Amino acid sequence: MLKYIIPLILFIVLAVFLALGLKGKPGEIPSPLLNKPAPAFSAPKLNVPNEKLSPADLKGKVWLFNVWASWCVSCRAEHPIINQLAQQQAAIIIGLNYKDDPEAAKKWLATLGNPYNDSVMDADGRIGIDWGVYGVPETFVMDKQGIVRYKHTGPVTEEDVQNTFIPLIAKLQAEP
Asked: Which residues contact 119 (CB under 8 A, 6 or more apart)?
């Protein structure tokens, strides 16, 4: 009898853990960067490789940091939303072209539209590692002091823009 009860108990315990795991929201991966200064980098701009950009260049401005790649299917799905967000001019949008071929990235932006005030290259993925990027796309919201205030994992949707990004950006823009 005992040889049947132990496997049954183990099965029930595993089922409970599985059920709890399925109730979670995989898009809400916590970031250790929240409410901390943006990781420093100095990276070449995609369209002007001899010029570099760093978070220090953006001090005093609210900005979004969108991690993308031309090979990323989810990035293609979110790109029209990022283009619409850019048209609202609520904040500066900086792209991080992640582990991508620069020529493919330039062609992709020329074809689908370029929502970025600037896009920097992260060919080896080092910047992404420093920022805790799990995969593309990911989007961070930075305040005027260069503090990470929000991280969105996965493609940004219209609902995300209206319910999260726009209210947060407006609040951060109003702060001194």
From this structure: 45, 46, 47, 94, 95, 96, 97, 105, 109
For the chain, the domain total comes to 1
Greatest extent of the chain over all pairs of C-alpha atoms, in Å: 74
Tell whether 164 is covered by a domain: yes
**List of residues 6+ apart from 32 with CB closer than 8 A:** 132
Domain membership of residue 104 as a residue range = 33-174
Q: List strand residue ranges (DSSP E) for 8-160, in order.
A: 43-44, 52-53, 63-68, 92-98, 118-122, 138-142, 148-153
In a domain, 16, yes or no: no
Q: Which tens digits make up the pLDDT trace of 136-175?
A: 999 999 999 999 999 999 999 999 999 999 999 999 999 9
- Tokens 């290259």 label which residue? 121
Task: Give residue 132's identity as a one-letter amino acid code.
Answer: G
Confidence grade of residue 176 (pLDDT, cut at 50, 70, 90): confident
Which structure tokens are listed for 126?
């080092």
Q: What is the CATH number of the domain that holds 89?
A: 3.40.30.10
